[in-house]
Amino acid sequence: MPNALKNTVFSALMGLGGALAAAVTAHAADKVSYGTNWLAQAEHGGFYQAVADGTYTKHGLDVTIVQGGPNAANSALLISGKIDFYMGGPQGEVSAVEQGIPLVDVAAIFQKDPQVLIAHPDAGIDKFEDLAKLKTLFLSKDGYLTYFEWMKANFKGFKDEQYKPYNFSAAPFLADKQSAQQGYLTSEPYEIQKQAGFEPKVFLLADNGYSPYSTMITTTQTMVDSKPDVVQRFVDASIEGWYNYLYGDNSKANELIKKDNPEMTDGQIAYSIAKMKEYGIIESGDSLDKGIGCITDAHYKAFFDEMVAIKVFKPETDYTKAFTTKFVCKNIGMAMTK
C-alpha cells in the first residue's frame, strides 16, 4: 500500500476509533496496570507510546506501566492479582497451564522472539549451522534448557561440551574468537560494537526455525471472563501505540522510557527500533495480514510441538488454555502493517 494511502486509511481508522473511544471516556476511566519483563527500553516502546500520546486515555483507560528488572517479580504480581497484565511469553504460559495456574496470552506484539547468537566476524561463521563448529557457546541456564536443546535436536554438531554459563558480560566472548554468546537482537550487538569496535555476526533463532512469540499481553482467565471489554480496549490501544511508536513521533514515549530507566540512551533506542523493523520482529507472519499482535493456533502449536520434542512440555498438556485469539487478528491493524 503506498504511504499516502496507508496514512489515509490509518487516519480513517483512528478517527473511527476516536469516536468510539469518546463514548467510552464519557465514563470514568478503568485503571489498568501492565508489568514489563525488564527495565524500560525501546522493546517496550508501544506501551509507553500509548501512555504518552493519550491513546490509552482515548480508549477509556488509566494505564500504569510497572517496570520490570532484576529484582522485579511482575509475573508473580499478575498471578496474585496485583497487576492486570504482564509482558509474558508462551513458555511461561504453557508452563502455568501445566501447574494449574490460569494465565492467558491475549496478544503477541512480537511475532518473532528477538533471541540471537552472536559470533566474531572473522571466525568463519557464515550461517547458523556454522555455530556448531565453535568450541564455546555462552548461554544462560534457561537458554541451555530450551533453545540449545532445540538446536541440538534440529542441527548437526551442537553438543553439551560447548556450553559455558553466560554471566551477562560480553568480556568472555570478546576474549575468545572461537566462541559465541546469546543476546537480544536489539541490545547486545549494539553494546558489543560499542565496546569492541567491530560489527559482530548476528543469527536470529526465529529466522532459523525457532518459533515462540514474544512480548505478549498476558492476563488471567478471570480477567478475560469478567472484564473482556477492558481487555479488548487495552489490546486495541496497545496495538495503536505500537504503530505510532514505530512510525509516528515517539519522542515523548522515549522520554518516559529514559525517565524510568535513566541508563537508556538515544543511540540504543534508535538501534533497537531499526532492528525491530529490519527483522520484522513486530510486522511479519500473521501480523502482515491480520494486524499487529495477532495470535494463531497454528503458530502457538508449532512452538508447543517444538518444546514437546525436547521434553520441555508434556505432550498431553492442553496448550490451547494458554492463549485466546478472541481479542486479536480482527483486521483492526491491517492498515498498520501494509
Automatic annotation (TrEMBL):
Residues 1-28 form the signal peptide. Transmembrane segments: none annotated. The keyword Ion transport does not apply. Residues 42-243 form the SsuA/THI5-like domain. Keywords: Signal. This is NMT1/THI5 like domain protein.
